[in-house]
Amino acid sequence: MIRNSKLSGVLHVLLHMAELDGPATSEMLAKAMCTNPVVVRRTLGGLRDAGYVRSEKGHGGGWCIARPLTEITLLDIYRALGAPPLFAMGNRTESPGCAVEQAVNAALDESFREAEALLLTRLGEVTLAALSEDFHARVAGRHQTWDLEKAHG
Predict the structure, then answer these.
(1) Which of 3, 90, 107, 148 has CA atoms 20 to 30 A from the CA of 136?
(2) What CA–CA distance (Å, rounded) separates 127 from 123?
(3) Distance between CA atoms of 13 and 148, rounded to whole angstroms?
(4) Are 41 and 26 in contact (CB under 8 A)?
(5) Domains and CATH numbers, the chain
(6) Which tens digits make up the pLDDT trace of 94-135?
């Protein structure tokens, strides 16, 4: 099953960005996402259009978070990414006239709708600030300091 980890990856770099005193370059963030800087620019471009990050060009430029972490939810970021499908599972559609397939699909449709509604509600309740607090607690528990270059060097 193919998994879409785009939301997780973007949240990862947003938390790294929140720890920096200045802009983060696409190259720095690409290391954290284990991807190409072009992918970072394309992905963060959607977040910039939604007002969650901003970019600065030129020497000393890069990406910065544009709003307080308390004002950005995981649902906001999910939507800024284009609201990709939440589940890889789907209904069988090979025999649409089959009553068994119809009964199975009806039951699954209801379950999928309920699960999606629950997940979207939960994403709307969690802010980047809450993720940042969890991150800081984990770092403190390990008696470590944080450094983007060392974390993904």
Answers:
(1) 3
(2) 8
(3) 10
(4) yes
(5) 6-151 (1.10.10.10)
(6) 888 999 999 999 999 999 999 999 999 999 999 999 999 999
